[in-house]
Amino acid sequence: MKDGLLKRRLVRPVRLLLQQGVTPERMALSLTLGVVLGIFPVLGTTTVLCAVAAVVLKLNLPAIQIVNYFLYPVQIALLIPFFRLGELVFRAPHFPVSVAQIREMAHVSVWNTVQRLWTTTWHAIVVWGLLAPVAAGIFYCLLKPVLRRALPAARPPVV
C-alpha cells in the first residue's frame, strides 16, 4: 500500500514534470531543496520556505511541495535530534521535552510554547544551517544522475 502511495503521490508527479520539459538538473535541485527545507526544525514553516525558494530560484513549486509534504513525518522525527545537537554545539543545558509535550504545550498556548522553546529552537536552526548545505550537496549529486537516467523513460514516445 505504501509503495502504491509513494508511486502515485511522488514518482508519478515527478515523471510527469520531466515529461513537461523540466530538466533533470532543475528537478534534482527542486527535490533537493524540498528535502532540505522540509526538515527545517521549526514546525509550520516549511511550506512557506519551500514556496519562497521555488519562486526566488525559479524552480518547480509542485516538486518542492510534494517532497515537503512527504517529509513532514521526518521533520517531526528529527525535531528532538536537532534540539539535542543544538544543546551539544552551544553547550546549553538539557531541555527535557518530547514531540508529544511540544504538541500539548502548543495546544494550550502557542505563544507560551514559542517563548519556552525560543533558545532551543534557535540552536536547532543553527545546527540545521550547518548540516543542510552538506546534505543538499550530497543529495543533489546522488539525485541528478538518477533523474538523467529516468528522463528517457519519462518522455512519451514520438509517433
3D structure, described in words:
The chain has one domain. The protein has 159 residues and is mainly alpha-helical. It has seven helices and no strands. The protein is elongated and about 55 Å long.
Strand and helix layout:
Layout: H1 2-19, H2 24-38, H3 46-57, H4 61-70, H5 72-90, H6 99-108, H7 110-154
The gross shape turns out to be: elongated
The residue ranges in which pLDDT falls below 50 over 5 or more consecutive positions are none
- By DSSP, the count of extended strands is 0
Q: Termini distance?
A: 35 Å
**What's the average pLDDT?**
87
Biggest β-sheet strands, sense, barrel: none
- Structural category: mainly alpha
Strand content: under 5%
Total individual domains: 1
Our count of helices gives 7
The helix-strand sequence is HHHHHHH
Percentage of helical residues? Answer: over 70%
The radius of gyration computed from the alpha-carbon positions, rounded to a whole number of angstroms, is: 18 Å
